[in-house]
C-alpha cells in the first residue's frame, strides 16, 4: 500500500557555515541525537543523518548546502527567519 501525505518541514540554514538542517522530528530535545549515522561525503559537501538512541532518524544535516540544495529552498529558509534574532 502506498500512502501520500504533505506535511510541513522545519528547516534551518546557516549561510556563513553553508550548512542546512532538515528536521524529521521537531523540536529535537537537547542530547536526543546521540549518533550520526550514514555519513555520506560527496564532492564539496557532506550529509549526516542524526539518530536517537533507538535508531530513529531525527534529521538530516547538509554541509555545502549551496551546492546540493535548490537556491529557492535556501532563500525561502532565510526569508522565513527574517524576524528572528541571530545568536552570536
Overview of the molecule:
The protein is an alpha+beta fold and about 90 residues long. It has one domain (about 10-80): Enolase-like, domain 1, CATH 3.30.390. The protein is about 15% helix and about 35% strand. It is built from 2 helices and 5 strands, in the order βββββαα. It has helices at about 65-70, 70-80; strands at about 10-15, 20-25, 35-40, 45-50, 55-65. The protein has a 5-stranded antiparallel sheet. A hairpin with a 5-residue loop joins strand 3 (about 35-40) and strand 4 (about 45-50). The longest helix is centred in the C-terminal third of the chain and has 10 residues, at about 70-80. The mean pLDDT is about 85.
Concise overview:
InterPro entries: DUF2283. The chain is an alpha+beta fold.
Amino acid at each position: 500500500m502506498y500512502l501520500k501525505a504533505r506535511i510541513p518541514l522545519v528547516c534551518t540554514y546557516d549561510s556563513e557555515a553553508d550548512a542546512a538542517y532538515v528536521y524529521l522530528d521537531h523540536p529535537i530535545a537537547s542530547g536526543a541525537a546521540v549518533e550520526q549515522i550514514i555519513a555520506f561525503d560527496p564532492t564539496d559537501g557532506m550529509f549526516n543523518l542524526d539518530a536517537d538512541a533507538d535508531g530513529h532518524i531525527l534529521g538530516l544535516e547538509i554541509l555545502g548546502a549551496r551546492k546540493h540544495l535548490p537556491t529557492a529552498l535556501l532563500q525561502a529558509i532565510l526569508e522565513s527567519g527574517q524576524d528572528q534574532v541571530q545568536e552570536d
